[in-house]
Amino acid sequence: xxxxxxxxxxxxxxxxxxxxxxxxxxxxxxxxxxxxxxxxxxxxxxxxxxxxxxxxxxxxxxxxxxxxxxxxxxxxxxxxxxxxxxxxxxxxxxxxxxxxxxxxxxxxxxxxxxxxxxxxxxxxxxxxxxxxxxxxxxxxxxxxxxxxxxxxxxxxxxxxxxxxxxxxxxxxxxxxxxxxxxxxxxxxxxxxxxxxxxxxxxxxxxxxxxxxxxxxxxxxxxxxxxxxxxxxxxxxxxxxxxxxxxxxxxxxxxxxxxxxxxxxxxxxxxxxxxxxxxxxx
Length: 281
Known about the structure:
The chain has helices spanning 5-12, 54-61, 69-77, 80-103, 138-157, 194-209, 221-230, 253-280, and strands at residues 18-25, 29-36, 39-46, 116-118, 160-161, 170-173, 176-179, 186-187. By secondary structure, the protein is an alpha+beta fold. The chain contains eight helices and eight strands, in the order αβββαααβαββββααα. The longest helix is centred in the C-terminal third of the chain and has 28 residues, at 253-280. Helix 5 packs parallel to helix 7 (221-230) and helix 6 packs across helix 8. Helices cover 44% and strands 14% of the residues. The strands form three sheets. A four-stranded antiparallel beta sheet has the order 1-2-3-4, covered by helices on one side. Strands 5-8 form a two-stranded antiparallel ribbon. 33% of the residues are buried.
C-alpha cells in the first residue's frame, strides 16, 4: 500500500521496512500494521491538531511537565513554535507512559520508540479484537473486569490515569485484555480532574461488562481505589472489595450511578451502530 506521510520518516530512518495495511482509525490517530525486519508490529500516525478537540486536550494536559522553560513559555503563548512543542509533547506522552507502565507490569503493548509498538494478536495470530467487539459470558465478563480493575490500580500506583478507558481501548489477546491508547494519560496527583477521570474509566468498563454480569453494576471499585490512593494506602497488590461507603453529604451517589447508566447506554448505542454498519457491508 502507499506509505502514509507520517510513516515515511520511519522507513527513511530504517525503523520500519514496509507498511502492510491499515489497522484502525480513532479520534487521535490512525494505526497501521508494519514490518520491521522479521517482526510485524503496528505504527501510529497522529491526526492533525486541527482535527482534534483543543479544549479536551487542555483538560488532559493539566499537571504534565514540560522539559524546558522556553518550551513552557511558548506553549503558554500558543505561538507556532509552542504549538509544535505541544504536539511533540502530546505524542511523547504515550510512549513514555507505555515504557513506565510496562515496567510496572501493566498489560500494555511493548513500545519500540515514539510511533511503533507491539501488534497485539489473538490466538490465531490475527490482530486482536477490541473488547467492544466480542461477546462474553458472565464468567468471562467477571474475569475481564477483575483483570482490568487490577490494571487501573497498577496505573494509579504509577501516578497515572488512562483518561479515556473504554471497551474500544482494550484489546482481547489470548491471555486476556490489553490496554491501549495513552496519549491523553492523566497525572493522578497533578490534575484537578483526576478523580473524575478515574471514576469515568472504571464506570465505563463496569457498565460495559455489566451487560454480561449485571452484579458488577453494584460495585464501587473506582471510589474504593481513589479513597485508598488519596490516603496513601493503595499498593499494587491491594485487594479491593468493590464496596465503598461514602459521605453522602460530600458525594452525590445518585449522580455517580447515573453516570454509570449513561456510560452503559452509550456503549450499547456504539455497539448497535457497529452491528448496523457490519450488516450494511
